[in-house]
């Protein structure tokens, strides 16, 4: 049994930057309450580690960011890598909180692209994942942003504007983008297409697509992570057996019976430690199989 790690995989620059911002805030605001409005990145292991530093993550799928902000009376509030609505940031400042924005630069780039075209009179078609914080931050900009998540949504679009721009959440599948944007171009031939999938996401996805001889693919990451889920989805085009796992504890030995080439990749928000533990465990199992 042969174990291989797919490169690139794991942390991207946006995730590293967001986590470093939180750690720096802890150093600079010792003794103060520090809150993160949502998961800083979508990985529970990261959240648990920050909790040990006294960082409080406010994350509740039944509450809006506005409602979560109401729970903070004083201290520091950090906005996650996924972006935040301008109105939430303004509210936090008005409350007298110390505000720190850890939004990924790729998300900010998309946000500025959308703002610029809205100012020029464009309708915006935005492809993303429902209830994802990055999508919510973009949609908060204007009612002239038409949110789509499926081909069925495209069929329902009825936009009477000769100025239309199409863009997307940065962590979507590049294969989905090609299909969805192709359909949109057929419906609105005059639309401008701006693919905003981040380099880290596309590089990890294409590295998986390039594998032609794999038997099993393990995708290490949190199920809440959209880029991790998309890696698993894309992996099923090349691998018959794909498993999305949060750690080595999710590996079932029976899944490896009779399998030869085992590949490991990881989402952009997956800590290196977890990837190393998975690889080490798989190598131990491979060594046992040779005994």
Percent strand = 15-25%
The gyration radius over C-alpha positions equals 21 Å
What would the CATH topology of the largest domain be?
Answer: Cobalt-precorrin-4 Transmethylase, domain 1
SS class: alpha/beta
Counted by DSSP, the helix tally is 11
Apparent shape: flat
The spatial strand order of the largest sheet comes to 1-12-10-11
N- to C-terminal distance: 12 Å
- Total number of strands: 12
Helix amount: 40-55%
Superfamily at the CATH H level of the largest domain? 4-hydroxy-3-methylbut-2-enyl diphosphate reductase, catalytic domain
Q: Describe the biggest sheet?
A: 4 strands, parallel
* CATH class placement of the largest domain: Alpha Beta
Q: What is the averaged pLDDT score?
A: 96
How would you explain this protein's 3D organization?
With 291 residues, the protein is an alpha/beta fold. It has three domains: 2-11 and 200-290, Cobalt-precorrin-4 Transmethylase, domain 1 (3-Layer(aba) Sandwich), CATH 3.40.1010.20; 13-104, Rossmann fold; 106-197, Cobalt-precorrin-4 Transmethylase, domain 1. It has eleven helices and twelve strands. The strands form three sheets. A four-stranded parallel sheet has the order 1-12-10-11, sandwiched between helices. α9 packs parallel to α10 (226-235).
